[in-house]
Amino acid sequence: MSDDGPNKSDQDTAASADPASERSTLKEAFASFDRDGAKESEVRVHDVEADSDDQSAEAAAPGATSAHDQDGRIAHLESEVASLNDQMLRAVADLQNARKRAERDRRDAETYGGVKLARDVLAVYDNLDQALQHASEDLKANEPGFFNGVSLTLKELLNAFAKHKITPIQPEPGERFDPNRHQAMYEQPHAEIEPGCVVATMQVGFMISDRLLRPAMVGVAKAVDPGAEAATG
User: Fold this and answer.
1) DSSP annotation of 158
2) Is pLDDT of 33 > 60?
3) What share of the chain is helix, strand, coil (3-state, %, to 5)?
4) Which residue in 62, 67, 141, 189 has a CA-CA distance of 20 to 30 Å to 156?
């Protein structure tokens, strides 16, 4: 009996002590687990945040590159637009100049197209004019029809000249010599006409519109030499 008693008491004591120890061990295990889990969670969160930052940086880099490329393309397109605009303005200016030249050429051809023909016909005018100026009084009296016919022909020729803006240059004596329209053939001392003025017209000149077709051939007065005048007197 004495041997069974102590053994039972030791068993009860061990039984009563084991649950507390087990609970303490479990608490420490759970605590350790919580600490390790928290650390592991922090590591995972840090890794996730790092991955997120890397992805954000990767996503932002193409955007920055794309914006830079877009700015460059815009600048290139603006340069092309400016170049095309300049080319268009130059083309419009060239077209306007070409139209003005064509219009000027058309007017010149219309006005001055018959210059060569007119110069050739001037010889006809000269012959008719000389015939009338040198006609004798006997011819006028004996051949009035012939004389009047030549006079009418010359008149009709001048009318045809006028239709094509061809006008005669026939300065009167005493008119100031104009080098743009007159050609001096000789100088003549003259007491009544001022020096540098026309004394006589040898050949009638002509203008076609505002251009000189042929200058008038004239004699020009010059000052009288007092010594020569005294010797003559």
Assistant:
1) H
2) no
3) 70, 15, 15
4) 141
C-alpha distances out from residue 64 to 73, 76, 189, 210, Å: 14, 18, 98, 72
Written as one string, the DSSP assignment of 192-232 is SS-TTBEEEEEE-EEEETTEEEEPEEEEEEEPPPHHHHHHH
* Contact criterion met (CB below 8 Å) for 151 and 197: no
Write out the two tokens for 112: 């001055």
Mean pLDDT of 13-29: 54
d(CA 23, CA 14): 15
The Cα 233–Cα 223 span in angstroms is 17
Radius of gyration from C-alpha coordinates of the chain: 62
